[in-house]
Structure prediction request, 300 residues.
Amino acid sequence: MRLKFFLIPFSILTLFMSCQKEDVPRIENSMLDSFEAFIVGDEGEYEEGTVCFEFVFPIIVSMPDGSAIQLDSADDWNSVRQWYQAHQDIRKDPVLNFPVDIIFKGIRTVTIHDEKELKDARRACKDEKEDDRKEEIDRKGCFDLVFPIEVKMPDGSILELVDAKDWQVVKEWYKLHPDFKEKFEIIYPVDIMYEDRQVKTIENEEEMIEAKKGCKKEEERDKENCFELLYPVNMVMPDGSVISMENEKDWDEIKQWYENHPDSNEKPKLGYPVDIIFEDGNTQTLVTQQEMEVVKRNCD
Prediction:
């Protein structure tokens, strides 16, 4: 194996490896201490929780004296640190030999040829984290897409998404085509399903925009309520089964139930009694749906 291709400063490499192996002993070396300061300091680009890939071992690191250390696993970083313990007077950075392979999210292997590509991969992790946050916000609408759907990418290619998990395929496409900044297009018509299980066919982008506006109006109506449910609550499903929810995330169990019962269009019912909390902090127990309707009217 060739020992030297393109080289990357050890400080940046240490950032990536520290996220994979945190329990390797620390070297008492002022230069490596500065690397740690680089990682946890003011470099906002490298905030915690934004590493989405791992290195594929073995990798080779060239040391300042011209020697090379092969790392067969993350544990072998001790060899690099021990080298600096034995060369206390050397302050020059070691370098990583390219090409190297990395694995994104344990799924896709990518060959990195130089420092720029590695920085781009690191930046893609941060962008993906932000995309996930925005996607989570977008999912709070009042309807879901009915899969499968097709999307047209900026280069004209078509991707078929069989279920919601396949949005990851779209993200991966953009990672493989960094020069494309245009947003993908949904190929119409598509079906959407509202929370009440009603299905509507959307023929074009204009109709999709109107559907999203309708969700905002629904959200505004929901905000008019002057109280919130106190968890846990029970939901009685159309087949008589009961789903107990400990928090808002458990609403996903309701969606899952309907996915498992595609022929059921009846809404679930709130199981009484329930406790509610008002904006002023006072609580009240409601025993019937009629009492709930009275409370809602009093919010106006």
